[in-house]
Amino acid sequence: MNLSGKHVLVGITASIAAYKTATLVRLLIKSGAHVKVVMTPDSLHFIGALTLATLSKNPVYSEYFDPKTGEWSNHVELGKWADLFIIAPATSNTIAKMANGQCDNLLIATYLSSDCPVYIAPAMDLDMYQHPAFKNNLNKLVSFGNYIINSTSGELASGLLGEGRMEEPENILAFLQSFSADQPLKNKKVIITAGPTYEAIDPVRFIGNHSSGKMGYELAIAAESLGAEVVLISGPTHLEIPQRVEVIKVKSAEEMYRSVQMHQNSYDIAICAAAVADYRPIEVANQKIKKSSSTHQLNLIKNIDILKSLGDVKKTGQFLVGFALETQNELENALIKLQKKNLDLIVLNSLNDKGAGFGGNTNKVKLISSDNNIDELPLQTKNEVAQDILNKIIQLQS
Q: CA-CA distance, 194 to 238, in Å (whole number)?
């Protein structure tokens, strides 16, 4: 990433490593960036605002308003001003607040108002860095689409040796400058379908399935982190909306089809990970159906095949990925689907594999390309599976 002319917001929290941030600000200015600094009130005990204002050539923000002048520090404007936001050092306390939306200072308010890429450089003592609570909060921030600049090992302020040192300013700058090289999907539009569809029977009941949407959401997070413009078309889920991803909420297969149609001519990569209902009721009752006999007949009609509809109109240069969840004759059925629907790649998983399928946090899949080459992946988290799927797509397109 060329930082020249970029608006870089630097966040500082209450860590002894704050002294390093003065050097980081100086390096950012030297690289041609426009820099503003926002600090937590307690971080002022570790480094002075005057030093950072002098280096950044801008006022330093640490309170919502200046009691002497009454001037308001607008966190929304700060968040929108930034092209990127780097929080260095980031303490365990601040990371916990970011992960859980606990907004009690200007830095957190600015973070929650920003829509630019956010980079986090943790700094803390060894025991804190290894604590499961911290690791869980850090994983939540990654799931939000934030980028972590991992701490290094060395001598810590406590005198202990181990992980927890904030990365050196020169290396943080190099990370930011080289980040675009790690974004092979930059300028690519990726549409992803996720979750189940609900096909109404009456105002109360519906036909659905057990899909949680986790696989599709992980794909959206991973694609965005690789630089893609992501449109996530999601059936009903309880999952958090990924940052910097356009999300279109739908319920039925018909709604999902219409939303996909809106983007079918403009996508570079389409990944159909949703578990779309094959059939819907011919008639939907206006009122709740009452029990009137020991049996009830429900007449169904086939839904439009969204994946096939994309394959039928796929243009040169577009890459189409489907999923196949099977319970028998898995490979045979997946290969038929691959050819019949004009796919470039199909992701096969079987409910017979322990840890695969709906609802869980893991998956075990086979990636089958249009030349019938098969990559069998081990049981992994869905985040790892998403990364492998996108890496395979990138490989096949290169």
A: 12
The domain boundary, picked from 180, 203, 226, lies at 180
Q: Does 42 share its domain with 133?
A: yes
Q: Is 209 a catalytic residue?
A: yes
Yes or no: say if 29 and 1 are a contact pair by the CB < 8 Å rule.
no
Is residue 106 within 8 Å of residue 73, measured between CB atoms?
yes
Q: Residue 65's pLDDT band (boundaries 50, 70, 90)? A: confident
Q: Are 241 and 257 spatial neighbours (Cβ–Cβ below 8 Å)?
A: no
Is it the case that residue 77 has pLDDT exceeding 70? yes
Count Cβ atoms below 10 Å from residue 40 Cβ, excluding itself: 25
How distant is the alpha carbon of residue 339 from its chain centre?
A: 31
User: How far is 320 from 378, CA to CA, in rounded Å?
Assistant: 23
Structural domain contains residue 2: no
Per DSSP, the residues of 363-380 read E--EEEETT--EEEPPSE
**Which residues form the domain of 176?**
7-180
- Across 267-283, b (16+ Cβ under 10 Å) vs e yields bbbbbbbbbbbeebbee
Measure Cα distances from 279 to 284, 296, 305, 322, 381 in Å. Answer: 13, 17, 10, 19, 31
* Element spanning 230, H or E: strand 229-234
- Whole-number Å distance between alpha carbons of 314 and 335: 19
CA 340/CA 67 separation, integer angstroms: 69
Together in a domain, 174 and 235: no
74, 93, 209, 391: the catalytic one is 209
Given a contact cutoff of 8 angstroms between Cβ atoms, the answer to whether 123 and 153 are in contact is no
At 21-42, the pLDDT tens digits run 999 999 999 999 999 999 999 9
Cα–Cα distance for residue pair 122/137, rounded to 1 Å: 12
**DSSP letters of 282-317?**
SS--SSPPPP-SS-----EEEPP-HHHHHHHTPPTT
pLDDT of residue 359: 65
Output 183 or 390, whichever has higher pLDDT.
390
Please state, rounded to an integer, the average pLDDT across all residues of the chain: 91
